[in-house]
Automatic annotation (TrEMBL):
The keyword Transport appears for this protein: yes
Native source organism of the sequence: Euplotes crassus
InterPro entries named among the record's database cross-references: ARM-like, ARM-type_fold
Family the entry assigns: Belongs to the importin alpha family.
Protein name from the UniProt record: Uncharacterized protein
Keyword entries, A-Z: Protein transport, Transport
GO biological process per UniProt: protein transport
Length: 243
């Protein structure tokens, strides 16, 4: 009943108008539909589209009701255990990217859930594609929203300096993604004051050792003002006196 009601709204409007969903119990019902709906059912794509539209909402009411960590858990289960088509996987990453961007608590929930490792594995295992781009947005939104302590943790425990640098090289022709990855790298490198100089995970030394500075200098030759300014900002971290 809940699903039919939401599909009716979707068809009338073509864009889900969230203020029409008046009953919070229906929102909770939609979360349950997502949790238990058979991904092999032909209606499953519609379920994902509806959840995706809800996840893109600015409404605090929607966020507080629907964005529970079980959404991350279910997304991880669906991607890792079912042979879903790329379009469905892309939608799941999009839902999670929207959720992570809602704030630090949503980003911390993502980090604490299996979806974090599922996203990392997908990025490392697959060639660049529209689906992988959504997975990258999950990680970039995560880095943007979490605090310094978790940024330090992913540098030390998950090798995020090399991970993001490799992603930057791979994503060079994917729209605004390179700019967002550069911003993520800048956020990660800004934690350098919390590391001891002899730490083998020191972000500045690690970035330098994998050819990061040379790559940024190459990026500055591209005709892209945003990439130039972002790479310049990072280079200033290494050359604070402008040499």
């Amino acid at each position: 009943h809940c699903l039919k009601h939401l599909i009716d709204i979707e068809e009338q409007d073509k864009k889900l108008e969230l203020d029409k969903i008046e009953c919070i119990s229906e929102m909770n019902m939609m979360t349950k539909v997502f949790e238990f709906f058979n991904p092999e059912d032909k209606m499953f794509t519609t379920v994902l589209v509806i959840i995706g539209n809800l996840s893109a909402s600015d409404s605090e009411k929607i966020q507080n009701q629907i964005f529970k960590e079980k959404i991350y858990n279910r997304a991880a289960e669906l991607i890792s255990q079912y042979n879903l088509p790329p379009s469905n996987i892309k939608e799941l990453f999009w839902i999670c990217a929207n959720m992570v961007s809602c704030g630090d608590k949503f980003a911390e929930g993502f980090y604490a859930s299996p979806m974090f490792q599922v996203t990392i594995d997908y990025i490392e295992d697959k060639p660049m594609s529209d689906t992988k781009r959504e997975a990258c947005w999950c990680i970039c939104n995560f880095i943007a929203k979490v605090g310094t302590d978790i940024r330090i943790e992913v540098i030390k425990n998950h090798g995020f300096i090399s991970f993001m640098f490799n992603l930057l090289k791979e994503a060079k022709s994917f729209g605004k993604l390179p700019e967002t990855i550069l911003l993520s790298i800048s956020n990660l490198l800004s934690t350098h004051t919390f590391f001891l100089e002899n730490d083998d995970k020191h972000p500045l030394f690690e970035f330098q050792s994998i050819g990061g500075i040379e790559h940024l200098e190459d990026l500055q030759t591209l005709p892209n003002v945003n990439i130039f300014s972002l790479s310049n900002k990072i280079l200033k971290t290494f050359y604070p006196n402008g040499e």
